[in-house]
Every structure is written in C-alpha cells, then in structure tokens.
Amino acid sequence: MTYHFRKATTSEIPHIWIILQQAIARRKADGSDQWQDGYPNPDVIQNDIDKNAGFVLTEDDTIIGYTAVLINDEPAYENIKGNWLTHGDFVVFHRVAISENHLGKGLAKKLMNFIEEFAINNNIYSVKADTNFDNFAMMAIFEKSGYSYCGEVHFRGSARKAYEKVIVKN
After folding, report:
1. Which CATH number fits the domain that encloses residue 56?
2. Mind listing the pLDDT tens digit for each residue in 147-159?
3. What is the pTM of this model?
4. pLDDT tens digits along 28-45
5. Residue-number span of the structural domain to which 126 is assigned
6. Number of domains into which the chain is organized
7. What is the 3-state secondary structure (H, E, C) of the chain?
C-alpha cells in the first residue's frame, strides 16, 4: 500500500464529508458527545481548504482519511489549564477521521506521522492537539504516539484534553 498526505481540494469535499459522517456516527455509537452538535460539517471542511489547512490521507488514489493542520493557529490554546511543554511555534491538528472501510490498520497513527513530517518540513518541532474527555480511542493513539497530556483547553463551550509532542531533531 502506498499512502500519501496532501492538501485537499474543494472537489473532494463530498468524499471527505462521507468520511467525517462515518466518524460522527462512530463517536455517537461509542456514547461520546463529541461531534454530535452539527460540527464538523461541509462548511467547516470548505473553510479548512480555503485556509490551506485541509489535508487528506490517500491509499493509491482513494481518500481514506482527513484532518485539518494549521501552524500557530489555535487561540484556545493560549488559555490552557495546565502547561504546554514548549512555547514557540507549533503545528496543531483537528478533525482526524479515517474511512470506515480502513479502520484497524493503524492509519490514525500514520496520519499523525505525516503531520509530524509536515511540522519538520516547516522547521517546527512541536505538535499540539486536543480531544474530548470521552474519546478514549484518540487518547490511546496520543499515548502510543509519544504525546504528553498537558492540561485542559476550552472549545466551543466544553473542556477538552490537550496534548503535545516535542519532535526530536535527527
């Protein structure tokens, strides 16, 4: 299998939206409140793409995952209850979703590896992210991927667990 990580295009929004809807349904089936309020939606994806922040994971030519990746662009992170590991430039990612047909292959972790490569390519050695308190699958991926729990941040009215990974330069 050949995996690629690249910027998403507007024409791919319908396919990306299907993957996000699958993830929204999985969160609900897991009993989570995350993504159960109309967010994310196609307008959010369009906004990501407009900001050059929407990225897809592809297997050959098939889109199998989506995430938004930004540099130094998360105002909520300025008000952490806790402490970040670093205070310089950082890459942040949101809205990680893997296609229903490709679950259980370690692709979320692979997607996070691509995000780390993106950071290094931009000479940034910190990756930050957050998740709901009830998203145990994502918390496990953070732990397996070497992220440290740093505290709580608030998004859209609710507390979230915040994580950071400092990338070691080779």
Report:
1. 3.40.630.30
2. 999 999 998 888 9
3. 0.94
4. 998 888 898 999 999 999
5. 3-166
6. 1
7. CCEEEEECCHHHHHHHHHHHHHHHHHHHHCCCCCCCCCCCCHHHHHHHHHCCCEEEEEECCEEEEEEEEEECCCHHHHHCEECCCCCCCCEEEEEEEECHHHCCCCHHHHHHHHHHHHHHHCCCCEEEEEECCCCHHHHHHHHHCCCEEEEEEEECCEEEEEEEEECCCC
